[in-house]
Amino acid sequence: MAREKVGALIMLMFSIAYGLLATRIPLTFLAQQETFTPRTMPYALAVIGAVMSLAILVLPTTDEEGKHGLGKETAGMDWRTAIFLIGLMFAYGLTMKWLGFILASIFFLFIGFWILGERRWLLMLFTCIPLVLVLWVIMSSLLGVYIAPGEIFYQLGIL
Amino acid sequence: MWEGMISGMATGITTTLIPINIAMVLFGCFSGSLIGMLPGLGPITAVALMIPVTYGLEPTTGMVLLAGVYYGAIFGGSTSSILINAPGEAATVATAIDGYPLARQGYPGKALAIAAYSSFSGGTIAVVLLMFFAPMLASVAKSFQSADYFALMILGLTAVSAFAGRGRVLKALLMVVLGLMLATVGTDQTSGVQRFTFGSLELLDGIEFLLLAMATFALTEALLLVLKRDPSSDSFKPKTIGFKSLKVTGKEFKLIAPSVLRSSLLGFFIGVLPGAGATLGSFMSYGMERNLAPPEEQKKFGKGSLRGLAAPETGNNAASSGSFVPLLTLGIPGSGTTAVMLGALIAYGIEPGPRMFVERPDVFWGVIMSMYLGNVFLLILNLPLIPYFARLLAIPRNLMVPIILFFSLMGVYLVTFNDFDIMMMVFFCIAALAFRLMNFPMAPLLLGFILGGLMEDNLRRSLMIYDESMSFMWERPITLVINVCTIFILSLPLIRSMLTKAKDTR
Known about the structure:
The structure holds two protein chains of two kinds. By secondary structure, chain A is mainly α.
């Protein structure tokens, strides 16, 4: 299956789901009397989205690049590293509040370098620590933005 | 009109010459060049990455900075195209056709210098044109009503899709629809009703524009660099580019001068078209020069022709300036990058369009006049720094990718201080990555998302004015003209394919 057809299929399902969810948008009594309600635009978009997706699915693919199969196009890609990096980004979001900006960012960069195959420890440390600290100083001291410390510091009694 | 223009120019000059604005033009050009030079990162990413920095600034200063980043990034993209044949984005692909062979022949300095002079000339000529055309269009647009704006937004969204390329129109339109769908998430402005929030407090205000821009461009580009393992982005051993090698002779200047002038005009007018942008500007300028060149010169195209290098470089910079005309006067972005800038303007509480020309002349003229300064800075700052900038390409991908990811995530977090936004960014990044791999363009999505709220608002108002009838689409002459343009643009691919078939049968 051409890769653009896979995308169109996903968009078709998304448009249907979006349209169904639009029926659940609450309407006030006054809104029910009007022609243009908060549901109008979503309904129109769901219909247009579904029609366009169907058109891509049914019509022949003219874009040469879109004709390739998804498997062929993604073969040989470094999925392992990409998945690790996505996991790292999730972890960064989860630990930000707990560890605070400085620690979470240093860990994020350090582990990111490691995932990508960097093994020069000193280079990794001397890149991530100054970078994060300089940014923190710029934000908190120069621009006056308050960045809350991590909860761990309160739990450990440091702050 | 002339009096207004002269007083506007005076306002613009006064605004631009404030020390903080001069510093921001300088900083914008410098940082834009640096970011644009990194393989895989284009002007959209560069502008998106800089938006968090502008939140603490005055709207004019912020816009001046973003404009500097924009043309700095276009220039930076040319550097990586010429040196390592790795264009940062589509607008600099045509530069690589002759720039890279010229660098391979042992003239990297000359190629970079011609790119710098051409960018400067294209940018400067286009800003002069912008100065005349923008106020003219803005004064016409003052009579626009909600119906016209709604029609204009449809035109802008259609044009972006129509220029997406052969066989990609429907895909681009579908991405516009997806962007419009995402724009409906949050509290409806008129009724106060929640839509698609799933009971989440974080979604009450809708999806943050910056978050979506970073996720769909900066994060996705960085992950694509990892996935594709592009060897050109892995390692670049910078050759020593001395100052002497940057010299361009008088004969060479004479050779490229007519090309630069022609490409500036063509690039500007292509940039003015909503949706066309710098990519089309550079390719059409290249094509025009190749067709106009004498047979002997034509043979050199693709093998290191100076004219072949100067034309797209001039064309993309002129088109970048031209794309500010619809942005500043109508509030309709001419390209993906100006769409991001439109989002920034809206975040400042400024509604772009003809009223901005009257209500915020400081922003309108400040941005235009700062472009003069930006072009001069780009030349006098970047030309001597080219040899040093080139060394940036030597930073290994192992270090570069996590740093890009970090700046993108941090850029959003330090504006909202909400860790839920980081999660949402990652989610959108995965979705955008999937769509990119399925060959769907992302710029139309962003454009749809940014214009979604305004579009719904204008449609609602038009329906109220016209007694809930869609007759406004053909009853108002301006709306009708805009709609005819939309239909024409939409039917362009069809006309093109019919013409090709007719040609083939002949």
